[in-house]
Amino acid sequence: GLPWDTSEETLRDYFSQFGVLEEIRIIKHKFTDKSRGFAFVSFFDQDSALQALMTEHTIDGRRCEAKVALPKTEGTGSQATRVFVARIPSSVTEQQFRQYFETFGKLQDAYMPKNPAKQMYRGIGFVTYVNPESVEKLVSMKHYLNGSEVAI
Protein backbone atom coordinates (compact mmCIF):
# COMPACT_ATOMS: atom_id res chain seq x y z
CA GLY A 1 0.00 0.00 0.00
CA LEU A 2 0.83 3.66 0.08
CA PRO A 3 3.15 5.08 2.73
CA TRP A 4 1.05 6.69 5.48
CA ASP A 5 2.43 10.16 4.78
CA THR A 6 1.87 10.22 1.00
CA SER A 7 -0.08 13.35 0.02
CA GLU A 8 -2.69 13.89 -2.68
CA GLU A 9 -0.25 16.31 -4.30
CA THR A 10 2.40 13.56 -4.51
CA LEU A 11 -0.14 11.20 -6.10
CA ARG A 12 -1.29 13.90 -8.53
CA ASP A 13 2.31 14.62 -9.58
CA TYR A 14 3.07 10.92 -10.00
CA PHE A 15 -0.09 9.72 -11.80
CA SER A 16 -0.34 12.74 -14.13
CA GLN A 17 2.40 11.10 -16.22
CA PHE A 18 -0.26 8.62 -17.43
CA GLY A 19 -2.87 11.18 -18.45
CA VAL A 20 -5.37 13.78 -17.29
CA LEU A 21 -6.63 13.06 -13.77
CA GLU A 22 -10.26 13.39 -12.81
CA GLU A 23 -9.98 12.79 -9.05
CA ILE A 24 -7.56 11.59 -6.36
CA ARG A 25 -8.85 10.55 -2.97
CA ILE A 26 -6.68 9.15 -0.16
CA ILE A 27 -8.81 6.97 2.11
CA LYS A 28 -8.49 7.93 5.78
CA HIS A 29 -9.63 6.45 9.09
CA LYS A 30 -12.96 7.89 10.13
CA PHE A 31 -11.88 8.84 13.66
CA THR A 32 -8.13 9.55 13.37
CA ASP A 33 -8.12 11.17 9.90
CA LYS A 34 -4.88 9.26 9.18
CA SER A 35 -4.28 7.50 5.86
CA ARG A 36 -5.33 3.86 5.62
CA GLY A 37 -2.58 3.25 3.05
CA PHE A 38 -4.62 3.35 -0.15
CA ALA A 39 -6.22 5.83 -2.50
CA PHE A 40 -8.57 6.06 -5.47
CA VAL A 41 -7.19 7.65 -8.63
CA SER A 42 -9.60 8.38 -11.50
CA PHE A 43 -8.56 9.30 -15.03
CA PHE A 44 -10.63 11.13 -17.64
CA ASP A 45 -9.95 8.46 -20.26
CA GLN A 46 -9.71 4.69 -20.17
CA ASP A 47 -6.37 4.45 -22.02
CA SER A 48 -4.65 6.48 -19.29
CA ALA A 49 -6.14 4.24 -16.61
CA LEU A 50 -5.05 1.10 -18.49
CA GLN A 51 -1.52 2.46 -18.82
CA ALA A 52 -1.40 3.14 -15.07
CA LEU A 53 -2.70 -0.37 -14.34
CA MET A 54 -0.04 -2.01 -16.50
CA THR A 55 2.85 -0.16 -14.85
CA GLU A 56 4.73 -1.05 -11.68
CA HIS A 57 4.75 1.88 -9.25
CA THR A 58 7.12 3.15 -6.57
CA ILE A 59 5.64 6.06 -4.63
CA ASP A 60 7.53 7.78 -1.81
CA GLY A 61 10.03 4.91 -1.86
CA ARG A 62 7.48 2.11 -1.55
CA ARG A 63 6.37 -0.30 -4.27
CA CYS A 64 2.63 0.12 -4.76
CA GLU A 65 0.08 -1.79 -6.78
CA ALA A 66 -2.66 -0.27 -8.94
CA LYS A 67 -5.93 -2.20 -9.22
CA VAL A 68 -9.34 -1.61 -10.73
CA ALA A 69 -11.76 -0.51 -8.02
CA LEU A 70 -14.75 -2.81 -7.84
CA PRO A 71 -18.00 -1.15 -6.76
CA LYS A 72 -19.47 -2.23 -3.43
CA THR A 73 -22.78 -4.02 -3.78
CA GLU A 74 -25.73 -4.17 -1.43
CA GLY A 75 -26.60 -7.40 0.31
CA THR A 76 -24.53 -10.44 1.22
CA GLY A 77 -21.54 -9.89 -1.03
CA SER A 78 -20.26 -9.01 -4.44
CA GLN A 79 -22.25 -10.22 -7.42
CA ALA A 80 -19.50 -9.34 -9.89
CA THR A 81 -18.74 -12.04 -12.44
CA ARG A 82 -16.24 -10.13 -14.60
CA VAL A 83 -12.68 -9.15 -13.71
CA PHE A 84 -10.08 -7.05 -15.47
CA VAL A 85 -6.51 -8.43 -15.59
CA ALA A 86 -3.50 -6.18 -16.27
CA ARG A 87 0.28 -6.60 -16.61
CA ILE A 88 -0.05 -9.87 -18.55
CA PRO A 89 3.38 -10.85 -19.92
CA SER A 90 3.65 -10.79 -23.72
CA SER A 91 4.67 -14.48 -23.64
CA VAL A 92 1.21 -15.57 -22.39
CA THR A 93 -1.14 -17.02 -25.02
CA GLU A 94 -4.91 -16.70 -24.89
CA GLN A 95 -5.11 -20.47 -24.27
CA GLN A 96 -2.76 -20.21 -21.25
CA PHE A 97 -4.76 -17.24 -19.98
CA ARG A 98 -8.03 -19.18 -20.24
CA GLN A 99 -6.59 -22.37 -18.69
CA TYR A 100 -5.20 -20.51 -15.69
CA PHE A 101 -8.40 -18.63 -14.87
CA GLU A 102 -10.72 -21.59 -15.38
CA THR A 103 -9.06 -23.22 -12.35
CA PHE A 104 -11.09 -20.77 -10.22
CA GLY A 105 -14.49 -21.68 -11.68
CA LYS A 106 -16.58 -22.19 -14.79
CA LEU A 107 -15.83 -19.50 -17.36
CA GLN A 108 -18.39 -17.73 -19.47
CA ASP A 109 -15.61 -15.95 -21.39
CA ALA A 110 -11.89 -15.13 -21.28
CA TYR A 111 -10.53 -12.54 -23.68
CA MET A 112 -7.18 -10.84 -24.29
CA PRO A 113 -7.53 -7.93 -26.75
CA LYS A 114 -4.85 -7.47 -29.40
CA ASN A 115 -3.23 -4.30 -30.68
CA PRO A 116 -4.64 -4.24 -34.25
CA ALA A 117 -1.55 -2.59 -35.71
CA LYS A 118 0.90 -5.13 -34.31
CA GLN A 119 -1.36 -8.19 -33.93
CA MET A 120 0.12 -8.66 -30.46
CA TYR A 121 -1.74 -8.94 -27.16
CA ARG A 122 -1.96 -5.63 -25.28
CA GLY A 123 -1.05 -7.02 -21.84
CA ILE A 124 -4.62 -6.87 -20.53
CA GLY A 125 -7.52 -9.29 -20.40
CA PHE A 126 -11.08 -9.81 -19.23
CA VAL A 127 -12.41 -12.90 -17.51
CA THR A 128 -16.14 -13.53 -17.02
CA TYR A 129 -17.29 -16.32 -14.71
CA VAL A 130 -20.65 -18.03 -14.50
CA ASN A 131 -20.77 -17.59 -10.69
CA PRO A 132 -19.76 -14.59 -8.54
CA GLU A 133 -18.19 -17.01 -6.00
CA SER A 134 -15.40 -17.64 -8.52
CA VAL A 135 -14.58 -13.92 -8.56
CA GLU A 136 -14.58 -13.75 -4.75
CA LYS A 137 -12.08 -16.63 -4.66
CA LEU A 138 -9.97 -15.05 -7.42
CA VAL A 139 -9.61 -11.55 -5.97
CA SER A 140 -8.48 -12.82 -2.56
CA MET A 141 -5.04 -13.92 -3.78
CA LYS A 142 -2.05 -13.00 -5.97
CA HIS A 143 -1.76 -14.41 -9.49
CA TYR A 144 1.23 -15.24 -11.68
CA LEU A 145 1.32 -15.99 -15.41
CA ASN A 146 4.59 -17.26 -16.88
CA GLY A 147 6.38 -16.25 -13.68
CA SER A 148 5.16 -12.62 -13.60
CA GLU A 149 2.60 -11.24 -11.18
CA VAL A 150 -0.53 -9.91 -12.90
CA ALA A 151 -2.89 -7.29 -11.47
CA ILE A 152 -6.52 -8.20 -10.85
From TrEMBL:
Domain RRM: 1-71, 81-152
SMART domains noted in UniProt: RRM
Keywords, comma-separated and alphabetical: Repeat, RNA-binding
Pfam families: RRM_1 (PF00076)
Name of the protein this chain belongs to: RRM domain-containing protein
GO molecular function: mRNA binding
PROSITE patterns: RRM
Record-level GO BP terms: regulation of translation
